[in-house]
Amino acid sequence: PSNRPDRPCLCGIAMMASYPIKNSSNNPGEDADSSLNDEL
Question: I need a labelling partner for 16 at 20 to 30 A (CA). Which of 2, 6, 8, 9 fits?
Fold first, then answer.
């Protein structure tokens, strides 16, 4: 992973794009941020 910064980047982008859509009803900003922090 240390040599491939593209993998985590893609994962983060995909999650960020999918999370806000699902958590749009609840907290698009807070929920997405919390999830991203956990994944990181």
Answer: 2
